């Protein structure tokens, strides 16, 4: 089925220093079925694309994919409030049972995200990042029209799962692709901007339904917002053919001749800091990546889902994996990002605002989050560092969440006796929610996705990015399944619980997270003690590393 060639040289039992001094020659790895997979081949590289154009293209393509992701995250939170949708899926009675079933439809999306990310982490290592994105975009072109035309509960459930699979795979592949193609001094800013605009997508999901419900009462109110995804998918398919493949994946597959062309497209200098030519700096980059791969293979770095989670190795891969899962789960559930996406309307209703106004305020919150996230991406992503961002963001967010709970408490207390005072506190809920949004956008919104994408070794980076998306999905799934019960059962007291959890997460991150800012992906391996002590000493000089 597959014709997979082994490396030309295979290291035997060598000392750690010898292992670091050897760079093996790899044969090209190919698969007989690969040519039938749609998308640009590994050898295809669009000619004439300038480095500035390449960076702009990567940013544009990544932003489009994450706008789609953010849009999907919040879409059914707003669609589920439309009466015509409830009637179509047979859940229009308004009973508590119907609310639970609607929550299952929303939560099923995250099961699809998990499945899509798992599959993507495996297949993108075989066919490349670009082909993976193309394949799932094509699947999206099939799934979205069918989802738009849904007519019953089973239809909605199955298509929503497939819709999630498309999003999960695109998120996972894009995170890996962006991390592997961006210069280490711009990586934080580049990925942070992609994640920041996802909040614009989430906000637009609320605004689209809000605007249509004011003019229409038919099913177009929710069918059109679902169909809008097609525009973003078509744009992604158009852009992907102009952008180069991941150079680290090309080297991993033995395609060194192709990687030189890619690095020329991604590099933008005449001479590096040491006076070397572009060719010399590119060769230095290739050697640095090859060295890291050789070390990983010679010391048997974990390279499947089970081993990266449970098998100790000299690269501390399980620690990286559980850190990625914890960070993403916390961003969605413990710190509160997913709760606002799924139950933002409930948050404002707890503050005393009617449902329609609460929907509008939720959309505005996402715009605030996205705008502050863009500011954070541009000015702070590669300056503050990851550890400070996580710890400070969670601590400040926790305090703000507790204050929201205090205001909601007084809204409830004075709603029957003093409407004027109750309204003042409800305004306080809005103000504090917007401030919370600014804090989340400046910190966790982008850093929770950036950090997992840069901490894994090359052999397991694709699966590591998939794990981070799975952590994100598990957090969101928990929000959908648990959030409604919590808000309905204890109302404003929920804010005290989640505020305390957020503070706890901040403390854990201070001790758990290792700093990665301005480091190449190969240098990140040196952060983990076992590698640093035994095998990192003889790495080729890469002062001109273009990545």
Structural class designation: mainly alpha
Kindly state the number of beta strands: 0
Could you say what the CATH architecture is? Up-down Bundle
CATH superfamily: MFS general substrate transporter like domains
CATH fold call = Growth Hormone, Chain: A
Strand-and-helix sequence, N→C? HHHHHHHHHHHHHHHHHHHHHHH
**What's the overall geometry?**
globular
Biggest sheet features: none
- Helical proportion? over 70%
- On the 0 to 100 scale, the average pLDDT is 82
First and last CA, distance = 35 Å
Main CATH class: Mainly Alpha
The count of domains is 1
Describe the structure.
It is built from 23 helices and no strands. Mean pLDDT is 82; it is low at 1-24. With 547 residues, it is mainly α. Helix 14 packs parallel to helix 20 (461-490), helix 15 (337-350) runs parallel beside helix 20 and helix 17 (386-414) packs antiparallel against helix 21 (493-512).
